[in-house]
Amino acid sequence: MIAPHRHLLQIEGMHPPQIETMLDLAESYVLLNRSGKTQRDLLRGRTLINLFFEDSTRTRTSFELAGKRLGADVINMSVSTSSVNKGETLLDTAATLNAMMCDLLVVRHDQSGAPNLLAQKVDAAVINAGDGTHEHPTQALLDALTIRRRKGKLEGLVVAICGDILHSRVARSNIHLLSAMGSTVRVVAPPTLIPADAARLGVEVFHDMAKGLAGADVVMALRLQRERMNGGMVPSAREYFRFYGLDFEKLSHARPDAMVMHPGPMNRGVEIDSAVADDPVRSVIKEQVEMGVAVRMAVLDILSRGQNRNV
Predict the structure, then answer these.
(1) Which of 29, 47, 50, 265 would disulfide-bridge 294, Cβ 3.0–4.6 Å?
(2) 83 CB burial (10 A radius; 0-12, 13-18, 19+)
């Protein structure tokens, strides 16, 4: 039985059975999507609003496709951060959304906690599509589904997350999820890109790629988020790639069957070499995109059931 959920704001605090329920349901949507029978009436008559205060192509399109495949009416609202202030303006936005009587609200915002604030003020079920450096829960779920489909499990795996850990909401959500599911999580980055609370997150910290990737089952490269940096955190892109860019030489330290992941968008030649990113055997980056639609269908499904209070 699927437990009803009101919102999906973060992975932190979720229990393994909740995570497994979402992954199992998403697995069924993978099969449904591949069968070509993608249109359903599960969300017919429901309105899904994608409210993005930050630019996004992959995540927004994925939620739009997921909503439409379940029969929802989908509205995309792109809001420039230059025209939106924090606090009262965000609350005014909440009042407007309530007047629209939407059922599901997907929010991406550059400020950590913004989706949580909206969740307190709107009647709709709220899904966090990334807030500041806090979390990106559906990305972690789709990554977990991708790993589980390739490796058959999450428990006992060694996952190395490499790159800009400090600014990455993807890293935080993955750390919480993978740790909860029994994986050993390593973070590999220069000291300037490791968060001060890394030890509290329960990860193993490495500053050397060869040591950090040794024996890893999964290697996840992250984008350098220069837009969130104040300068001086990394050398030139060329130097960064030399020490931390994922190429086949560095990947050779991982297990021979280690899979390569990247949440996108990729900076080729900075955090990952094109030959690795496009490798048909090791790379699952394209599969991650496919899993994203299925996971977001599952999340919309579960949250809609919570609204109905009939689960």
Answers:
(1) 29
(2) exposed
Q: In sequence order, what DSSP letters do the residues of 143-181 get, joined into one string?
A: HHHHHHHHHS-STT-EEEEES--TT-HHHHHHHHHHHHT
Question: Are the CB atoms for 301 and 42 separated by under 8 Å?
Answer: yes
* This model's pTM is above 0.85: yes
Q: Which residues pair with residue 186 across a beta bridge?
A: 160, 204
CA 247/CA 29 separation, integer angstroms: 33
CA 218, CA 287: separation in Å to the nearest integer?
14
Using an 8 Å Cβ cutoff, are 271 and 246 in contact?
A: yes
Q: Could you say which DSSP state residue 272 is in? A: B
- Token pair, residue 59, equals 């995540």
Q: What is the DSSP letter of 196?
A: T
pLDDT tens figures, 18-34: 999 999 999 999 999 99
CA–CA distances in Å: residue 133 to residues 13, 111, 170, 243, 247: 17, 8, 8, 24, 26
